[in-house]
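In the previous chapter we treated chains in isolation. Here, by contrast, the input contains two separate entities that must be folded as one system, with a combined length of 443 residues.
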Amino acid sequence: MNEAPRPLSLLCELTYRCNLQCPYCYNPLDYKTYGDELSTEQWRSVLVQAAELGVVQAHFSGGEPTLRRDLAELIAAAEGCGLYTNLITQGTFLDDAALDALLAAGLDHIQISIQAPDAALADEIAGTVVHERKLDAVRRVAQRDVALTLNCVLHRLNHDSIAEVIEYARVAGVRRLELANVQFYGWAFRNRAALMPTREQVARGEALVDAARARLRGEMEIVYVLPDYFGDFPKPCMNGWGRQFLTVTPNGRVLPCPAAAAIETLSFENVRDRRLSEIWRHSDSFERYRGTAWMPEPCRSCERREVDWGGCRCQAYLLAGDAGATDPACSLSPQHAIVTSLRDGNGETSLVARRA
Amino acid sequence: MKLDARPQFGKGVKLRQEPGGLAMLLVPESALSLNAPAAAAMELVDGERTLAEIVDAVVEHFEVGADRARDDLVDLFDRLAERGFVR
């Protein structure tokens, strides 16, 4: 048994509803079964409990969180507990009135996603005509007193547009740009064959990002999330299971990772039934893979065991069928061939849009 | 950052006090832990005091080796400025 560390970050997935249909969405395929959303009062209680546990940052996401009418109220509640507030949005509803309400509530940081730098490709990926509205939102937010990050998820269809995304962000006055290679969970896992970038794209992308970072040093920070299937070692998912992060789903389930609902061998407890602190400290789902004692070889004796924490439990489950296995993304995993065959796959191009 | 600059926090940057005189600088998607001199310096960031005034006040208060402490603090402000957390 490990003593539970202090969580720093709470992801509030307020709703899985969304007006976009991005095929790389990490939301669960059965997101329509999450209709029983927590009430405003229940979310308030979650925020208070999280602050008591030591959390310092609250992230509001979804789905599309601005579809919740009580969003500004929840941000004000989080700010009232001393939490730093971050809104992760696709931006299509961020008109001036909405922004006024969110900023009046004390919102600290907004992340707006775009699908690509040009409208034709962006709208094709989003499955609906929204790109120009997103750019309007970026322009509006850049003028306000709130931190702005522009996000773009990278995959085979837009990986060749990285230079244009960087240039757009620079001209728009974005201080922080996140270029995140798609991670294969939820709809993205369903569509992984068509979304997988090529080796050439990944190599070109990294070189472009390195050059842009040097050129724009002090002007724009570029966060680059590496592609999962192309490295020698796995990502340190969540910086360790049950170590710093917790996620609450729209219906109140508490997850160690936003993708963890896919793990059918774990059952996750609900804030409707138990205090958040007890779930964090004592629930089987958080305890199961916390620390290093659960690790099999080659993780158990690996000098990187407290660097990458065995990689991602959800990825181990999705690819190897065992959430307690070494992440197959690790080159030392006995099941690494699963990843290399997916990575070097067959050029599948058909996508399944997330259905609204 | 020059010593006569008057630093202020960038957008979305907040100082948070923690028990034991420690503090965190809360920034987009991260929380930077500050030691006591760094926390004291951040408390003086108001867009009016110069960097020299901030450094002098902290060095005096903590009675630490002055040259080293000055260099450390100026270096901290440079690193924060590069990421847009102070300007």
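The mean pLDDT of chain B is 92. Chain B is about 45% helix and 15% strand. Compare these points with the single-chain example from earlier in the chapter.
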